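Inner membrane protein oxaA
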Amino acid sequence: MNGGSLGLRTGSYGLLQNINGAIAGGGISKSLSNVRKSSTKMLSGIREKERPLPNAWYRYIGCRRFSMLLLIAFALLVFALGSFVVNKDSTSPNVLQRIGTLGIVPYVNGGHHEASQILGEKDKKKDENRFQIPAFKGASVLPFHHPCTNFTFPPPPPPTRRRLGPRSCPVCYLPVDQAIASMPSSSSASPVLHNLTYVLNENPIKSEPHGGSDFGGYPSLKQRNDSFDIKESMAVHCGFVKGSKPGHGTGFDFEESDLAELQQFHDIIVASAIFGNYDVIQQPQNISEEAKKNIPFYMFVDEETEAFMKNRSILSSSKRVGLWRIVVIYNVPYSDARRNGKVPKLLLHRIFPNVRYSIWLDGKLQLVVDPYQVLERFLWRQNANFAISRHYRRFDVFVEAEANKAAGKYDNSSIDEQVDFYKNEGLTPYSEAKLPITSDVPEGCVLIKEHIPITNLFTCLWFNEVDRFTSRDQLSFAIVRDKIMTKVDWSINMFLDCERRNFVIQSYHRDLLEQMPPPVPAAVRRPPALPNTRGKTPGKRIPRRGRDRRSGSRRHRKAAASNRDSNFF
């Protein structure tokens, strides 16, 4: 409709321009050149212009059928042109949709985005022509019959209706049965690296000034650098350096019954964790019966969180809370609850050695879309094996570091030390030179992963950075990703944060929830009381006559009908 209306406006302007051109060219202006001539001469000049028309032309114009056919033909022409314009607009390759990063910013944030510092307004047209690229290297082209082939983001709301801050945006998911049918029958190929093993050391010793832990094994800087030299077979530090197998005398230990269950094979698992009683457990919603039957949901908690859940009668001997299977962790390796949470987040492949796919959720998140649909949308459809959302506002590590310092997320000197170390290794501020990489800063509360050697190596090395430096994993993500990508043809699907907010709902941490006042109950709407006429002496009613009585009753019927309509809606 809009395209058609625009086409009509363009056509009318074009006709006006043609007339003006004809006047300027002298066709009609010859008869109007002398303004001092009388109106009679002007009319005669116009009639002389009309005389060459044959008499048959007047006959056809006067025919009503011919006029109707002419109008129908014109309407069909306008409809065809309008459809062409709309179709062209909907299928034209737009860089803001193709890379899925900077163009959706007004829709996501509703305000100014730091992307304008990199891609200025004056360079938009140039960039649209230059950056015709997919979101990441492994992006696939959907088959023609795929239900989401023609899906595009809706336009952003107008500035007057734009809501500040992050929010969700539409995502096209397949129905659950089709998503299940889309699951690959075999694992993806791991580039270069085919055999990954892990360092064991019963007595790790710290030999260098940088951080680390007994749990991580204190890898030296040389060992760290060697771990980025990707080979067909590798052995790297990846936590759990003590003991015969993860969770058995290694720190971050499990009960024997739990340890046996974690060794079982699963195509897909969903995992989360709460340490230090830091979050309120969130129950997944909209989960299909197939997922409830085939996909286990594991929630890792420490002893402090377990005691709280038992005191509140949340946890019973069944070790289940709703869909979640509770796994208690003993001998946690760190005093910082948030750092303990990085162990299951980044090392799920060590805890679950026989799992194909995993979805990690931070403890504050509630999953509201079926896991099969999430995996199909962000891994299988994209031919990806690792997916994470980018930060909704920041995409530069140096800017992220300053934001962490301003918010008091970690000790400022430790953040400065980490960023300076990466800067000396060659990390630079994000710029368009990094495209098709769209961000250096993830929103790391959701990880979607296929467990293959190259992705397992990535999360191992990412964990080693968290173990060596600060626990702010957003700061170490880019350096690990970039070092691996320089060695092998591999990439990460960094999807929009508004898409992440479509399948998870983010809650507040427990300490903030406890400080909030209880919600105010909604006011109960009661119908208005009828007027009390008891005890009043009714006055003498003056009857209406003729037209006044009929119009009054008609107004009453209209008012009653409008009241019924308003109550219905």
